[in-house]
# Entry
Amino acid sequence: MSKIYNINNHLMKYNDSCINAKGVIPTITGVQIENYIWSTENLAFDDGGDGITIIDNVSANGINMGTQYYYTWEAAVRVANKINGWHLPTLTEIRDWWNYPDRSMRKNNPMKSTTGWTLYNGTNQSQFNAYPVGTWSPGTQLYEVGNRMWFWLNEIYNNEEPYSVSIDDYSISYGHYSWDTLSYGSRYSVRLVKD
# Structure
């Protein structure tokens, strides 16, 4: 059955597929990093379901990073499953991503964007282009913009703690954290890997 949404005062109709604010599924561009192809931008899809927060004009350190979409883990899984040819990264894929040369550098980090970071901008040599868009949560709203980027993985530890990746001014890390339980409501960015 078709659904109708009112977006920017325009009625749009679609058959249970993802749309963004323009009503069009944008092309996802990718780049080879080690053995997999990764999306080069944060996902920007709203399927009309719960768990998605959209913030316009997210800015840090004089750089406007544009409209950003923040997803709960459940929403990230749900939306990613609707995008043909792409999926949320697995632990195997992030461990492969970990092998990229100089990935752990504070300064001139190849995964980070060349602007926007508070202390150490990157070179974006990998073309992953990680902007410091922070995270969103019900309690703090936007948090750590300019200092950090998080994105979800498609795996959960001990049935309650989803894995995520954190890129900040000092390091890149991944893991599952007790304060990131499914019930907490943290909303992170989403990056995808090509099937």
In short: The two ends are 28 Å apart (CA to CA). Confidence is low (pLDDT under 50) at residues 1-23. The CA atoms of residues 31 and 90 lie 17 Å apart.
